[in-house]
């Protein structure tokens, strides 16, 4: 398993595929154990909605091998959310906001639930109010990235 790279929240996220597609995503949740981050217990509705973005079929890109928790350097156990198991560390997600796109590791779910990481408000708003993972808009967007 690998460690994820660190990108400060809301910094430009470097991705050749996104660049070719004309996208300029912002990084969220690329944490590092030596870098501080905002903490707050998240609303269960946010956790439930975020978990849907972290499903493997919604990944923009898979990670091979899976990533380890960057905060504690360990393999991540599956999370149970609303009775469903989520194995994270296996991919990168995208979330569409009002005017921006966010790029995050699916480990963000682990960071939110286990480490009480508080993502930036812009990201939380995009998760809660942007296109849902089961929407036609989101599915078309993810297919464009996955098929590139």
Description:
The chain has 148 residues and is an alpha/beta fold. It has one domain (2-146). Helix content is 28%, strand content 17%. The protein has helices at 16-20, 44-53, 108-114, 121-129, 136-146, and strands spanning 2-3, 26-27, 61-62, 67-68, 79-81, 84-86, 91-96, 101-105. The strands form three sheets. A four-stranded mixed beta sheet has the order 2-8-7-3. Strands 1-4 form a two-stranded parallel sheet. Strands 5-6 form a two-stranded antiparallel sheet. A hairpin with a 4-residue loop joins strand 7 and strand 8. It is globular.
Question: In a few lines, what is going on in this structure?
Answer:
The protein has 148 residues and is an alpha/beta fold. It has helices at residues 16-20, 44-53, 108-114, 121-129, 136-146; strands at residues 2-3, 26-27, 61-62, 67-68, 79-81, 84-86, 91-96, 101-105.
Mean pLDDT: 93
Content-based structural category? alpha/beta
Helix content: 25-40%
DSSP summary, beta strand count: 8
- Unreliable residue stretches: none
Counting copies of identical and different chains, the oligomeric state is single chain
What's the Cα radius of gyration?
14 Å
- Choose one word for the global shape: globular
Helix tally equals: 5
Across the major sheet, the strand order is 2-8-7-3
Number of domains: 1
Largest sheet: 4 strands, mixed
The helix/strand order is EHEHEEEEEEHHH
Amino-to-carboxy terminus distance: 25 Å
| Strand residue percentage | 15-25%
């Amino acid at each position: 398993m690998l460690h994820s790279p660190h990108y400060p929240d809301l910094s430009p996220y470097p991705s050749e595929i996104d660049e070719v597609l004309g996208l300029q995503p912002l990084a969220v949740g690329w944490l590092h154990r030596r870098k501080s981050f905002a903490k707050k217990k998240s609303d269960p509705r946010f956790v439930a909605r975020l978990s849907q973005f972290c499903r493997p079929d919604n990944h923009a890109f898979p990670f091979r091998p899976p990533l380890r928790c960057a905060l504690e350097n360990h393999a991540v156990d599956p999370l149970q959310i609303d009775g469903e198991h989520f194995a994270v560390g296996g991919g990168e997600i995208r979330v569409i906001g009002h005017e921006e796109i966010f790029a995050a590791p699916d480990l963000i779910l682990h960071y939110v639930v286990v480490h009480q990481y508080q993502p930036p408000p812009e990201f939380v708003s995009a998760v809660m109010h942007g296109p849902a993972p089961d929407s036609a808009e989101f599915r078309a967007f993810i297919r464009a990235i996955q098929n590139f």
